[in-house]
Amino acid sequence: MGFSLKEFWTKKTLVGLVLGQFLSLLITSTGFSSSELAKKGIDAPTSQSFLNYVLLAIVYGSMMLYRRQTLKAKWYYYVILAVVDVEANFLVVKAYQYTSITSVMLLDCWSIPSVMLLTWLFLSTKYRFKKIAGVFVCVAGLVMVVFSDVHAGDRTAGSNPRKGDALVLAGATLYAVSNVSEEYLVKNADRVELMSMLGLFGAIISAIQISILERNELKSIHWSAGAAVPFVGFSLAMFLFYSFVPILLKISGSTMLNLSLLTSDMWAVFIRIFAYHEKVDWMYFVAFAAVAVGLVIYSGGDKEDDQKRADVADENVERSKRFDEEACSISQERNSGTKAEFIRKNEITSGSNSAGKNQCSTETAL
Q: What whole-number distance in Å separates Cα of residue 19 and Cα of residue 285?
């Protein structure tokens, strides 16, 4: 099987790669917004996500009302998805209080094999060797980032590493469930419906959780421009992220989404270099290149897959056309037979009527 560069650089591949990196940059911006809030002593992860869910409900809910269309999926599916999504965000952010950032980065990769397993089991997604190789290269690149942090001495044990690691694994698993569920819904229901329902139920669940866990934290916040700007910036970035995620899921699937988000840590490094003029270890650049190559390998070959799907579609169309032609010919034969039978009946009836008239004429003459 030969290598062809045209096989990789399809329009679908390029759109998937560019959109994936745009989403990765949005995640990077949310990370910096969260870090700015943490520096100011604000620790309210659910409250930050709450405004995002409200925006989703208002914007996409308005579109739903304008369309006046009924739900294509059961409403309780969206309730379950909202619970999973809200808690996934909460668990991963909470883990930073107990374990190191390098542990969170490494263990968060658990979402990738989880997504692949779930899509294989529930969406019947088939992964060829090329796809698996791309995943391996991407994860290897992220492992380089972890070793780079260790090499640079940028590693702290955390107050309770085991608890933190458990929170990350649980959050990564929930992220996988959320992404695969969104992929299924966006392909079988509707993107606007998905966003509006996720926003509505996500806002309700977040409000309940805030009233229980973060009520005192919100009361203690001294609101100022320095606190409000990163808070609102986080929500806007998350709103854009949630809005474009379904598009990438429909184009390339949830595995491609999770692989693309691996580069968010690398983008953070570039921001540290150019915005904060910090020095980073050289292994970061090798890791970034490895993840980029892995993404290209994974997303490559879509042209071949699309051609197979097109061939199958053509076969189905041809089969349907033959079936229609056969049905039409059978219908015509039946119509012809019915028409001939009708003519014969008319002839018999006409003959009977003529014989009756002749008989009446004879009797009259006599």
A: 21
Residue 289: half-sphere exposure toward Cβ, Cα within 13 Å: 5
Which of 306, 291, 287 has its CA nearest to residue 258? 291
Angle at 287 between CA 264 and CA 7, to 5 degrees: 85
Whether 171 contacts 99, CB under 8 Å: no
pLDDT in tens, 194-240: 999 999 999 999 999 999 988 888 888 888 887 888 888 988 999 99
Torsional sign, CA 22, 90, 258, 126: negative
Q: Does the predicted TM-score (pTM) go above 0.85?
A: no
Separation CA 125–CA 116 (nearest Å): 8
Confidence of residue 260 (pLDDT cuts 50, 70, 90): confident
Position 160 confidence tier, pLDDT thresholds 50, 70, 90: confident
Q: How far apart are CA 83 and CA 79, in angstroms?
A: 6
* Cβ–Cβ < 8 Å for 56, 242: yes
Identify the pLDDT of residue 307. Answer: 45
Non-local (6+) Cβ contacts of 13 within 8 A are: 296, 299, 300, 302, 303
| CA-based R_g, the chain, Å | 31
Whole-angstrom CA distances from 361 to 324, 355, 364 are 54, 10, 5
What's the length of the chain?
A: 366
